[in-house]
What we know:
By secondary structure, the chain is α/β, with parallel strands linked by helices. Helix content is about 40%, strand content about 15%.
Amino acid sequence: MNMIQANGMELAYDSFGNENDEAILLIAGLGTQMIRWTGAFCEQLATRGFRVIRFDNRDTGCSTHYSHYPAMDFNALAAALMSGQRPDMPYTLDDMASDVIGLLDALEIERAHAVGRSMGGMIAQLAASTYPDRILSLTSIMSTSGNPTLPQASPEVMGMMTAPGPSPLEDEAGFLVHSMAFAKRIAGTGYPFDEEAYRALIREEVRRNYDPGTVGRQIAAIAVSGDRRPLLAAIQVPALVIHGMDDPLFVPVCGEDTASSIPGAELMLVEGMGHDLPHQLYEQTIDAIERTAHRS
């Protein structure tokens, strides 16, 4: 792991492959760390002739955190948004998209392919639309457009995502049970859920950094992001939208709406895939990312 100053943040990152190859930047999702892009995935992608860079978003992992910020009051946030007011926010998705460009600047990379999953897909969309001269191609995985008319996740799924769990520092077993229950709920039906691998991943995230306020702050950043469709309509680079047919968090129509909002975007709907990326889908996903990158 490496540390670098970018856009006023200290960002943790890893680099795979030849540093002289075209770069692919992997952007993680809500409250998760760069290691959700597993080493195996990164190494396999790098063999296709890319420099693959994964990094911890601000407020996650080993990057700069906002732990000093008061806990998010979701009722107050919703009331402010309903009244048209701008709530007090530590940061926005636009700030996180600027981090992407800041990281490229710090690494002296002129242009890169942006690949994001879930919230990371939203950040990648913003980077591609706001900084068109810096992004070579866009791959948005299990994400959405911000269209307010799209179906929302069920209250049960949202409740599982936002419900506070035990602290892993005080009750590791309870924390693992809580985390595993949600992971299983949003996983697809087409592939076995690898409990051992996921348990090891969660333990590694806790070891790297545990910040219970991150998810709330990043949900707030998503909530104020608004409808990105006007920005998506301006994207000119090759774009790919990958979405699982079993995704209960962003239902498949969210992926369809994202693809239809980006001129010329390819939509890849995957049977049996939920809001996760099992290792059985690595090759198919990497093939699609490579195909999109070569379109640029």
